[in-house]
Specification:
There is one protein chain. The protein is about 5% helix and about 35% strand. The longest helix has 7 residues. With about 180 residues, the protein is mainly beta. It starts with 6 loop residues before the first strand and ends in a 24-residue tail after the last helix.
Length: about 180
């Protein structure tokens, strides 16, 4: 079966930056809905017309992947607003930020705690791969028709690679791309 819109592909891949540093390895096949919210559009476009067994090597620029790094999505917040057990690397939704945080911080962003200092906490609303061109070596392990349920929810249900909106506008804008 050839890959078209509204089918499910099982993929394995290795994701690297342009310097060759490994960012992610997916050894066990995971299923993704083509034409849904599971994959980057650049990956979906490259998969079209291929079938099980196909191997592709792609370079995806930041604007086609997770966007450019936006320094307007970095926020310094008072340390005393956060729980004592806060740790670097934790993520929190903008809607769950403590009262007293900068109101310009988009509520629909996902923030990573990048640094914790005695007086403040650094929140980064950029995707961890923002600003990075990525190289993807992938293999199509299988292809099948999508179920009505998968099409209806826009996902094969794997969940852990679901694409989140990338903020390209300055805080305060309601536009998400």
């Amino acid at each position: 079966m050839e890959i078209t819109e509204q089918c499910v592909v099982a993929l394995t891949w290795t994701l690297k930056d342009t310097l060759g540093e490994e960012l992610d390895v997916l050894d066990e096949p995971a299923e993704f809905l083509v034409g849904g919210n599971d994959l980057l559009p650049a990956i979906e476009a490259a998969l079209q017309g291929h079938s099980a067994g196909a191997k592709l090597n792609l370079q995806i620029e930041p604007e086609q992947a997770f966007g450019d790094f936006n320094d307007q999505l970095i926020f310094l917040e008072p340390r005393n607003l956060f729980p004592q057990e806060l740790q670097e690397g934790l993520t929190m939704e903008g809607s769950a930020l403590p009262a007293g945080c900068n109101p310009a911080a988009p509520k629909d962003a996902l923030y990573t705690i990048t640094d914790i200092y005695p007086e403040h906490v650094v929140l980064d609303g950029n995707h961890p791969l923002a600003g990075i061109a990525i190289r993807v070596s992938l293999k199509v392990e299988s292809v099948r028709e999508a179920t009505e349920e998968e099409i209806g929810r826009g996902s094969a249900g794997t969940g852990f690679y679901r694409i989140q909106p990338v903020h390209t506008e300055l805080p305060g804008s309601d536009t998400v791309h």
